[in-house]
Amino acid sequence: MPISNIEENLELARNRLVELDRKERTTEESTTEESTTTAEESSKIVIFIRGEVIAYEIPSPVHASVAAILSHLLLLWSNRHLVVYSELDITVGTTSEYCTDIAAEPRQTPPPTPGSVLQPTIIIEVARTETLNSLDSLTVDYFNLTQVYLAIKIFDRRQDSTAAMLAILYLRNNQVPNPALNVPNPPPNTPPMITLANTTPNLAISFGTAPLNHQSTAFINNTGISIGRLTGFLQCTDIACTAAGMQNYQITIPANLLFMPQVVPTGVPNNFTIDLWEVQQEALYHL
What we know:
By secondary structure, the protein is of the alpha+beta class. The chain folds into two domains: about 1-45; about 60-285, tt1808, chain A (Alpha-Beta Complex), CATH 3.90.1570. It has eight helices and 13 strands. Helix 1 packs antiparallel against helix 2 (about 35-40) and helix 3 (about 60-75) runs antiparallel to helix 8 (about 275-285). It is globular and about 55 Å long. The two termini are about 40 Å apart. The model is unreliable at about 20-45 (pLDDT under 50).
């Protein structure tokens, strides 16, 4: 399907969702709680995948604010050598189009010509209502484009006002420490790193004020994530993310991944580091 047709269908889908949302919100005022849920579910960010329109995220203050702070951190860290886009429609192949929360690519000199295809080196998704399964499924198409994919999942507040949060890092070149080295007396030629499929998380960190629930923990473990790469606040006895600068609550992304195939510009730090405490505090303020 030509890209122009994808864009036309995506716009029609968005307009249709807006129409449904208006109608259902009118109904909501005079009917049951069930219609309230339906109305909320119709107001979503949409994607167009292999000919099918899929609505998957309800816009909300927490979604917008977390995406905004991550965009800001990325722009400042790169000294504006990255062009950072928000709510960008990107096309994958000939039949899929996604509305990414954040995408960034190296700034080019001279600027690309109008109509050039974007080549993001990092994509970040922030999920308030979108499921872990949906976030994980995006890897297949996103790694046709990018080097790094980071998913941030914000769960509902619990009755005690705490909330679980999860950061999941995926890398195109997905190398992790070899778990075989964790056993007593490993063979002398055991390689220090192993390579996993890029659809498998490189790292997942539970960084909320509540531990991750059993279902979410099981989902991440079932992705094939390497032993010891799901970390953070998993059980009540674990040390929670309670302050800035805690070593176990940092996401570190090498600069060279974000500037491929170019060299890292002078003055850009070696790593882009996200302190998840900052993300947690921003989310809690709006949750």
